[in-house]
Task: structure prediction
Amino acid sequence: MIKKSDIVREAVREQDWKKALQIAKDFRIGVTQEQRSKMARAYECIVHPDFYQQIGVDITEAIDQGKAIVKEYAESTRRKNTMMKWDVKHDKAKRVIDAFLDNAEYWQEREDLSAGLTDEDKELVNAEVALMIASIRKRYKLQERLPEQAAQIQPEEAETVTSTEKAEETLPEPVNEDKEPEKPKRTRRTSTGEKKAPSRRKKKEAQGEEQA
Result:
């Protein structure tokens, strides 16, 4: 079964704008209402140019706007499909390599590989094979797979949670405007918490007042 988006891309590639616009103007996914209206107007201008020219519509401009929109739509869907196909292909290749690596431990059943080896030799070879397999898995990230379960989570919900958490973290503390700010105490204290002894100048001033 051929998808309509594939038909649109093929029509755009062949520059069959009438066919491309006729199908794309009814799309609901990936196209806004304004874009649908412009593509519909462009299609109508191609089919009934005389009528729209009589009512004062710029035929060339209307068709060019519709062509630009359907061309951009075709290109965006092409990029999306190409990326999705590459991801699936790459993920499948990882599974194939994994299957070969999982069966590597059965090498001892092959006479051409195990001939002439003692049990001790086989254990040494097994240990070396295990190291190589671990290195290959790490090098090509074979343990990673397409996020099948993660894809079920709506991105809008994840973004909402993240925004809420950030808002709570950055929320400033409430300020009481009615309360006057406390004035810093001028009494100086030593590191032990006791009041610091008066300076030599203050002692002299105090003695002068007592004598007076």
